[in-house]
Design brief:
The complex is a heterodimer of chains A (96) and B (483).
Chain A: H1 4-13, H2 20-41, H3 74-77, E1 84-85, E2 88-89
Antiparallel strand pairs in A: 1-2
Chain B: H1 8-16, H2 22-40, E1 43-46, E2 63-67, H3 94-101, E3 105-110, E4 130-131, E5 134-138, H4 144-151, E6 157-162, H5 168-174, E7 177-180, E8 200-205, H6 208-218, E9 248-252, H7 265-283, E10 287-291, H8 295-316, H9 334-345, H10 348-361, H11 363-390, E11 393-397, H12 415-420, H13 426-429, E12 434-442, E13 445-453, H14 458-469
Parallel strand pairs in B: 2-3, 2-6, 9-10, 9-11
Antiparallel strand pairs in B: 1-3, 4-5, 6-8, 7-8, 7-12, 11-13, 12-13
Helix pairs in contact in B: 6-14, 8-10, 8-11
Classes of the chains: A mainly alpha (96), B alpha/beta (483).
């Protein structure tokens, strides 16, 4: 059973909040989606199938050698951060 | 003289004959983009300055547009999300580098559904994208701006990404061609990840040959993307004209069973026109057969897609905290800062999808929802691969109707919605090459067909599409709003 409280908990775990009316919409949306999801569970023989995580059997994945390349310079790494001091991203103190 | 509404061959000829310069083409493209921006809202950024490498390829000097979820060093790249509205990448996506090296000229970055999650073109942070055939209708998404820019004749081609149908659906609603190659054919390096096992980079153009020109340039193995395919050492433009006699196609019977009895006239006309196209395709020398596909699998396509894509997206977008990049939130702790940034930075639709993804990934739901969705994915792909032993391609209507009006919503539990509006996702499940071609009109709006082929056989799909294009009467068309 989907409740607003559960959805608030999931949103919190994802580090955001939503407006009350948005949770109401979401409860209704879950009703439709879970009905659609029921189609998945009803498929015969599903339990014998290996889950598929990739479009095809991957025979070509290549790992590069563990060599230093494509270095992101510090000056570039902090370019998009709004709060920077001494080439480091500044955040509130984490450990008291 | 206008050039941006012409084919790549025509533009190339004019450039080579020096009847036009690449500077003039860039100015034309930028000025058209600005002219149409109030009506269509296709662009997040229209570039003021032209950057061009001195090379000699088919695309040298020709302007094009990139979807704004593709990384461009030094150029704002927002993914149409408020949380990234100030983000300027420090590296280039491979697809952009390849086009740059080929001498193609970037003229702008196009609007998408926020973070590429959505199929309406209505959720970008800079506003909705309107259909250039009728501005009261959606163009579809998520590559909404790229589709609109090509349909309006602002550029001859544009780059998009496709996780469910994000190139092929807006191409259908925009009356243009949209191609998603085999998974891994084009590097994903620098594409903002939505659902990594389903994400593809592809392109829009107004004819199949232009699609082949662009794909020949952007494909290939990339050391930065370990899932990119090894080079196939083929030039797709060389095989477009190969004989197709005896090539076998199928369409799925259950997708529009009993359509004649529907009250929906647009749906009826779309399907009857599709069947007329099938007849013409047969006259070209193709064998086209009706095939039965398990209904339970077809009804499961959309929920399977939702489960997998939302779960992958929830995880992929965990890096959007507003701290190392993006718009920073306020607060007295890291948690408060992140919470504020993500609460303000994501729109409601994105949050709803993330919550769904989180629900699916909860320990108690993983087996029933996530793993089962992955199992159904395999069942569908296995069934397709079995059919592809006998057939060279799946030919279908790209949609069960024309572009919807803003706010119009289908019954999401109906067969028509679950199957006909979502079957394009099958090509993402199996990484199959898949192309949408305009095929006619219903109520003065474009309709389209979709052709999906075997994994790795991008050349065959383009060859078949090139031949089919000759009977559609829709090659090189420009939307009403772009004339």
């Amino acid at each position: 059973m989907i409740t607003k409280e559960k959805l608030k908990d999931y949103a919190g775990k994802l580090m955001f909040d939503m407006k009350e009316e948005e949770y109401d919409t979401l409860v209704k949306e879950f009703d439709v989606i879970l009905k659609q999801m029921d189609f998945i569970g009803k498929i015969e023989g599903i339990e014998q199938v290996e889950p598929m995580t990739f479009p095809y059997e991957i025979g070509h994945a290549h790992f590069r050698k563990d060599e230093v390349k494509d270095i992101l310079e510090t000056v570039d790494a902090v370019k998009n951060a709004s709060d920077v001091e001494n080439n480091q991203v500044r955040v509130p103190k984490v450990v008291d | 003289m206008r050039y941006m509404d012409k084919s790549i061959d025509e533009i190339r000829k004019a450039l080579d004959a020096q009847t036009v310069t690449s500077d003039t083409l860039f100015q034309e493209s930028v000025s058209l983009a600005k002219q149409y921006q109030p009506a269509s809202n296709a662009f997040v950024t229209i570039l003021e300055e032209k950057k061009e490498q001195n090379t000699s390829t088919i695309l040298s000097g020709i302007p094009y547009a990139l979807k704004d979820n593709i990384s461009t060093k030094g150029i704002l790249t927002t993914s149409s999300s408020n949380i990234l509205k100030n983000y300027v990448p420090v590296y280039n996506a491979t697809v952009y580098e390849k086009l740059e090296r080929a001498g193609a000229v970037l003229m702008g970055k196009t609007v998408l559904d926020e973070l590429a999650m959505g199929g309406t073109g209505t959720t970008g942070h800079t506003g909705i994208v309107k259909n250039p055939w009728d501005d009261t209708r959606q163009i579809g998404g998520s590559s909404a701006g790229s589709a609109a820019a090509v349909a309006l004749g602002i550029v001859p081609f544009a780059i998009g990404s496709d996780t469910g149908d994000s190139i092929r659906k807006p191409a259908a609603f925009g009356g243009i061609v949209g191609f998603k190659p085999t998974y891994g054919r084009v590097s994903r390096y620098g594409l903002f990840a939505f659902a990594s096992s389903l994400d593809h980079v592809g392109c829009f153009a107004r004819n199949v040959k232009d699609i082949a020109y662009v794909t020949d340039i952007i494909k290939g193995k990339d050391p930065h993307d370990m899932t990119s395919l090894p080079d196939d050492n083929k030039k797709y433009t060389d095989t477009l004209d190969h004989d197709i006699k005896g090539r076998k196609l199928f369409y799925i019977k259950e997708a529009f069973e009993n359509y004649e009895n529907s009250d929906n006239l647009e749906y009826k006309e779309t399907i009857s026109k599709f069947l007329e196209t099938v007849e013409k395709v047969r006259e070209l020398g193709f064998v086209v057969e009706e095939v039965s596909f398990p209904k339970e699998l077809l009804n499961a396509v959309y929920p399977t897609y939702m489960a997998i894509s939302c779960a992958e997206a929830t995880s992929n977008n965990a890096n959007l905290t507003g701290i190392p990049f993006g718009v920073r939130g306020e607060g007295n702790s890291i948690n408060e800062i992140m919470m504020d940034a993500r609460t303000k930075g994501f729109s409601e639709l994105i949050k709803r999808r993330f919550v769904l993804g989180s629900y699916i990934l909860q320990k108690e739901n993983q087996e029933k929802l996530f793993k089962n969705a992955q199992r159904v994915r395999r069942m569908i792909v296995d069934k397709m691969n079995a059919l592809f032993k006998k057939y060279d391609g799946l030919l279908m209507p790209a949609s069960g109707g024309i572009a919807p009006h803003f706010g119009e919503k289908d019954d999401q539990l109906s067969d028509r919605y679950l199957i006909l509006e979502n079957h394009l996702v099958i090509a993402n499940f199996g990484g199959f090459p898949s192309i949408t071609l305009p095929s006619g009109f219903v109520n003065e709006m474009p309709i389209a067909i979709n052709l999906t082929g075997r994994q790795f056989e991008d050349d065959v799909v383009l060859n078949m599409a090139y031949k089919i294009e000759t009977i559609t009467g829709c090659k090189n068309q420009i939307a009403k709003g772009g004339k």
